[in-house]
Specification:
Length: 215
């Protein structure tokens, strides 16, 4: 807008829209622009009276809008998340990358939380365990990526196969085992019954001769 306004002044004072390549020019000591030599005095008078150079960005701005330009473009602003003040041009980068209150997600559970709390959360979250479906072991989440890149499940599958083989052999041995086996308690019971039977038999035969003599 300032450039157009300045060019408008050139139009009003000679209709010059641009500097021809073969036309002699001078540098304005106020705005540092190349101005046709024939208009340098007129330009300088207007330029120095109406424009001033911004001390922050170096742009030439109308003097009556200098304060507004500074407030809108360069005045420190506060971050709405952490209230830190900074120049407007770095506010977007601050909110996206540097603000401690910006929302980030945990790399293990993807839970959203402020960046300032991320480290403590991940220290706890990373120690949780999940079952690896390849090797059937429980792996800490912080070690999951490295484990998955190395795990092929061979070691534990072999162990499970060996364990299953031992269980199958035990089952076959149980099926081959005789069905009628005497336990120690059953053996003692049998001996006791046999002894009682022998004792009763001897008593019976001892009484029988006595009874025959009485007749």
């Amino acid at each position: 807008e300032i450039l157009i306004e300045d060019e408008g002044i050139f139009r009003n004072f000679g209709g010059i829209m641009a500097v021809a390549s073969d036309q002699a020019t001078d540098i304005c000591n106020h705005c540092d622009r190349a101005i046709p030599s024939s208009n340098i005095d007129l330009h300088y008078a207007h330029c120095s009276r109406n424009l001033e150079k911004c001390k922050v960005c170096g742009d030439m701005v109308p003097k009556k809008y200098a304060e507004e330009h500074f407030l809108n473009t360069h005045a420190p602003v506060s971050c709405s998340l952490c209230s830190e003040t900074m120049e407007p041009e770095i506010l977007a980068v601050h909110k996206g990358e540097n603000c401690p209150r910006r929302i980030v997600t945990c790399e293990y559970c993807e839970f959203p939380l402020p960046a300032i709390d991320l480290f403590e959360h991940q220290e706890v979250c990373g120690n949780r365990t999940e079952l690896c479906h390849l090797c059937r072991r429980y792996i800490r989440l912080r070690e999951r990526i490295d484990h998955e890149s190395r795990c092929n499940g061979v070691r534990n599958i072999t162990a499970e196969s060996s364990r299953n083989t031992r269980e199958a052999e035990r089952e076959r041995a149980a099926r081959r085992r005789p069905r009628h086996e005497f336990s120690p308690k059953r053996l003692l019971f049998t001996i006791a019954i046999t002894g009682i039977a022998v004792l009763l038999g001897s008593l019976f035969f001892q009484r029988k001769p006595g009874n025959s003599e009485m007749h």
